[in-house]
Q: What sequence folds into this?
């Protein structure tokens, strides 16, 4: 299914329990559609929500309202049923709002063009937290619920970690050479995956945010403008060449391209509440709804192989920057190999991940008590 929005879309979101999808447009307009697999989408609302461009939209409060963020620095709450304005927060930021995400059932986070991140209570209509997290626009955010931490990416090339309990920016990564455009949590929270303007996908290990532990360049040189988590091992990417791809994480590889929206950059990707449809918007001013089962057909063999490969390799998910290699003693065995043990440098790695592996040794040597 596809439909013309009439203007360049910046934001996209699906209703959490109904067959509704909303789009935020550069004109400041907000569109709401009802979709069905057996009929064309029906436009329910066409509102001029903001005087300047509407950059982001999110359903909140169980889908009863839509929040939009704009370059006019305001956040607007709109009733889904009637289209009436519930509340408008003028000057919510000192600069134009760039991104907006759901944090919990009653809180959202907004990021602006100058790197400020704010967390809001949508029911009390109050500000909960404010972080000067970045030096340039906040391109995307994601929430780690177990740790109560909000992660953000920015045009300044850094990943930030904001502690909601302490109301502080806990850490920020070193500057990368490219703008970071998107972020998702993968591998049950053990990996933070970031898209970049160069097309490189950067992987950070949880708790070690200063520098990435891995880089995947398979999508280069096209900017990875959108990331959408499919499951703990696979992510859907949207690139500036209009291509939508299914990508595996650890092992890192392109499983297959699954759709081509257009020749223009993908602005946003989203999944319907029942995960039957993938939504995409692009600079061609079109909203497209893809049957997820249909576009994933043909990747079955690759997916099963990927799952098997990833399962076999999980115990070897060891990052050089995160672990110490201990060789308090060693044993040369036939074939010229050395037994070593990987142990987490922080001492918090579960015992299941303390392992003995065999690595090739090119020539005999005396092992020191500790190799950095």
A:
């Amino acid at each position: 299914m596809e439909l013309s929005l009439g203007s360049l879309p910046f934001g996209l979101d699906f209703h959490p329990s109904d067959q509704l999808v909303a789009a935020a447009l550069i004109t400041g307009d907000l569109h709401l559609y009802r979709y069905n697999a057996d009929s064309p989408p029906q436009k329910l609302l066409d509102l001029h929500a903001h005087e300047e461009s509407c950059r982001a939209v999110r359903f909140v409060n169980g889908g009863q309202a839509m929040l939009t963020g704009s370059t006019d620095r305001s956040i607007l709450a709109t009733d889904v049923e009637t289209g009436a304005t519930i509340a408008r927060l003028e000057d919510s930021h000192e600069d134009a709002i760039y991104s907006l995400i759901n944090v919990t059932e009653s809180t959202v986070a907004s990021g602006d063009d100058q790197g400020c991140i704010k967390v809001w209570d949508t029911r009390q209509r109050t500000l909960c937290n404010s972080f000067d997290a970045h030096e340039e626009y906040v391109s995307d955010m994601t929430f780690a619920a177990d740790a109560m931490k909000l992660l953000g990416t920015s045009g300044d090339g850094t990943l930030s970690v904001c502690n909601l309990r302490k109301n502080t920016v806990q850490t920020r990564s070193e500057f990368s050479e490219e703008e970071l455009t998107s972020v998702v949590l993968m591998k049950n929270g053990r990996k933070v995956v970031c898209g970049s303007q160069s097309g490189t996908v950067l992987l950070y290990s949880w708790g070690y945010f200063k520098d990435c532990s891995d880089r995947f360049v398979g999508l280069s040189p096209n900017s990875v403008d959108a990331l959408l988590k499919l499951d703990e091992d696979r992510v859907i990417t949207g690139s500036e060449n209009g291509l939508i791809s299914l990508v595996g994480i650890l092992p890192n590889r392109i499983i297959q391209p699954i759709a081509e929206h257009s020749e223009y950059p993908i602005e946003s990707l989203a999944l319907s509440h029942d995960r039957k449809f993938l939504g995409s918007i692009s600079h061609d001013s079109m909203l497209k709804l893809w049957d997820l089962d249909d576009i994933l057909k043909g990747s079955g063999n690759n997916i099963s192989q990927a799952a098997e490969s990833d399962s076999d390799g999980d115990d070897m998910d060891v990052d050089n920057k995160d672990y110490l290699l201990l060789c308090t003693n060693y044993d040369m065995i036939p074939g010229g190999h050395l037994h070593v043990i990987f142990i987490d440098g922080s001492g918090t790695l579960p015992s299941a991940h303390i392992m003995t592996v065999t690595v090739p040794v090119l020539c005999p040597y005396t092992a020191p008590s500790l190799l950095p």
User: Anything to note?
Assistant: The radius of gyration is 23 Å. The CA atoms of residues 118 and 130 lie 4 Å apart. DSSP finds two helices and 33 strands in the chain.
